[in-house]
# Entry
Amino acid sequence: MEHQGRHALVTGGGSGIGYEIAKDLAAAGATVTITGRRTSLLKKIAERHERIHPLTMDVSDEGSVRDGIAQAASDHGPVAICIANAGIAEGGPFAGVALEDWRRVLTTNLDGAFLTLQAAMATLDRDSWGRMIAISSIAGVRGLKGAIPYTVSKHGMIGLIRGLSEEYMGSQITFNAVCPGYVETDIVTSQATAIAKRQNISEDEATQYMAKGNRHRVLLQADEISAATLWLCSEAARSVNGQTIQIAGGQVA
Ligand code: NDP
# Structure
């Protein structure tokens, strides 16, 4: 129960990677706020988990993030652990990327992480203990064809984490990024559908195409990403700051 008495907030905690992290933080004793736009989904999860609380919040909307996180802090205490996980992955060849598509991805993934971490930090003091983590991607450390806005947003999240680790150097708050390869979640299922359509192949073939960069030739599972995230939240990782951890089955050499 390492995190007993701590309040953790996980954006996009209603599904996939975020849900797995929220469950594991709750199992480690934290009171966990999960956020997203699907209120009924969040409420259903909260009904099943004593220490998990729902918060409807759109990370692309400044007022929603600032008011939502302030409310969560007033209900459950300062946000000592913040996982900026919410994101979208829309793709397509660069030539066809409309400015509005570019902005939608950047606004959700990068503005969302900025607003979330800033609002969470506002609930802490300079001498507080804290763990601020962004769920970036291998697309944050290498180029990913057919997903330029996503790649830029995920590189940006790593810049945000590195900058913050410098700005708060000497405090007990660490800032790190987790960079998964392809993980079997809704985001990947919809990407497989899009790739299959674009390349005129089956969804199975599209999934294999995504898994093939991974040495094990399989999609990763969300619990693998959660395990690394929980380690970054632990006391053992107190000296790990401003880093990116790639969990991609060797996809990034
Ligand atoms: P999911 O689609 O299951 O999770 C995405 C979550 O983000 C959803 O819970 C969704 O909740 C939330 N979200 C999206 N847009 C918004 C918004 N505007 N406001 C609030 N919440 C939002 O997929 P994953 O679990 O795979 O994705 C989680 C993170 O992991 C993402 O940042 C993704 O880029 C990253 N990632 C995923 C990889 C993969 O292969 N799966 C690989 C590398 C990184 P709701 O719809 O209720 O708003």
Q: What stands out?
A: The chain has a mean pLDDT of 95. Residues 183-219 form one domain. Helices lie at 16-27, 39-48, 62-76, 99-121, 148-167, 186-199, 203-211, 222-233. The pocket of NDP is lined by residues 11-12, 14-18, 36-38, 58-60, 85-89, 108, 135, 137, 180, 182-183, 185-188 (CB under 6 Å).
